[in-house]
Amino acid sequence: MFRSEGRMTMRKFTLFMSALVLVTVAQVSNAQTKIKIATLVPQNSSWAATFRDGSREIDERTEGRVILRFYWGGAQGNEKKILQKMKIGQLHGGTFSPTDFQGPYPDVNIYGLPFFFANYDEVGYVRERMDANLQAGFSDLGYETFGFAGGGFAYILSNEPVASHADLIGKKVWLPQGDLISYEAMKSLQLSPVPLPLTDVLTGLQTGLIDIVAIPPIVALALQWHTKVKYVTRIPVLYSIGFMAIDQRALKKIGAADRQILTEVLTRIYANFDAESESEAQAATAALLNVGVEEVELLSGEFGKIRGEMDATNKMMAEKGMFSLELLVEMEGHLAAFRSGQSTGQEPSSEPTGGAK
User: Fold this and answer.
1) 94 by DSSP, 3-state: which?
2) Which of 135, 194, 209, 215 could form a disulfide with 204 if both were Cys (CB 3.0 to 4.6 A apart)?
3) What are the backbone angles phi and psi of residue 238, rounded to the nearest 5°?
């Protein structure tokens, strides 16, 4: 009898524990997870509107279990501060440019080598072959990314006409703080780099602290830098990309199905940003000219001349460990294949094409 009662007691205990586990699992699966994401993107921008739409979609499709909360316009500080806050868990994600990862992941800066690409066709050919491997590198750092969005080419904005390399020599050029690659490149081209935070550039242009900025037109318009310059030279100084990174520790708190929804939505958003980047860059350039900034034509052959001078600098930077030499050789190989006509059946131009390209 005692054995029978013992068996009954154990059976009730087992049933109780099983029920408790089921209730706990149900509570966890229905728990709300907030992903806090900081960005410099202005709250009233089209990018912000797209992020809000995506956040609503994730909220609806996960039935409120996953909420993205955005902090707009640098409310949480610059990218360096955002990364610091992510490390201690105050934030879970942010939007970044490659220079923000110069220390932990220098290879992601490879697309932004100054005067490397001549046009969007070259960029597209190389990115088709290299994006996936570059994106995978973030996993080793503990981040999830959702694709790269092209930001267009940076052009030269100045208060004196720039039509050749000779016009650049000795000029004070702004660089983002921490952009070591562009710093070395500008020094090799005999310019005077002036690293400044974004917030100081407008004043720097006004006071003469800097003579030149190289920035995509869409950014120049957004930050009002075009109000302090007179000329634009549509030489593709460098190709810019942006991306979102979210700490994998935060994502692990989300169920597999909900995490798949989040990944699907954010990947689609970044794919759309990327697909629209060239047309948006062209529209921004036209807007720049419409508000009175005067275009300066680059002298024939100047881009090829500058790019030729950069070859040795690029190799030197790779050998110093600023990015992978193997990766540089791979990218040069893809570009050589494209220029030789293997991808198009004809010899592509090595000069900038169509101005905005």
Assistant:
1) strand
2) 209
3) -160, 160
Residue 239 burial (C-beta neighbours within 10 Å; 0-12, 13-18, 19+): buried
Torsion 259-263-265-266 (CA) sign: positive
* CATH code (residue 248): 3.40.190.170
Total count of domains within the chain: 1
CA nearest neighbour of 134 among 110, 168, 158: 110
Q: Does residue 45 lie within any of the structural domains?
A: yes
| Residue 70 domain flag | yes
Please state, in angstroms and rounded to a whole number, the distance separating the CA atoms of residues 308 and 302.
Answer: 10
Helix runs in 248-324, H state only: 248-251, 256-290, 302-319
Quick check: is 27 in a domain?
no
Residue 79, token pair as written in the block: 């990218």
Question: Nearest-CA neighbor of 39 among 71, 67, 69?
Answer: 71
Task: Report the alpha-carbon distance of residue 67 to residue 61 in Å, rounded.
Answer: 11
Please give the angle made by the CA atoms of 59, 276 and 224, to the nearest 5 degrees: 95
- Joined together, the tokens standing for residue 227 give 């109000």
pLDDT at 275: 95
User: What dihedral do alpha carbons 115, 334, 316, 165 form, nearest 10°?
Assistant: -20
DSSP string, 179-198: -HHHHHHHHHTT-EEEEE-H
pTM for the model = 0.84
pLDDT at 42: 87
Strand partners, 158: 212, 231
Domain, as residue range, for 87: 32-339
Please report whether residue 115 resides in a domain.
yes
161-202 pLDDT, tens digit per residue, is: 999 999 999 999 999 888 899 999 999 999 999 999 888 999
d(CA 357, CA 120) in angstroms, rounded, equals 6
Q: Is the pLDDT of residue 303 over 60?
A: yes
The mean-pLDDT minimum among 106-110, 222-226, 346-350 falls in 346-350
CA distance 102 to 90: 22
Whole-angstrom Cα distance, residue 293 to residue 159? 10
The 10 Å Cβ neighbour count of residue 197 is 11
Q: DSSP character for 140?
A: G
Residue 292 is encoded by which pair of tokens? 């009175």
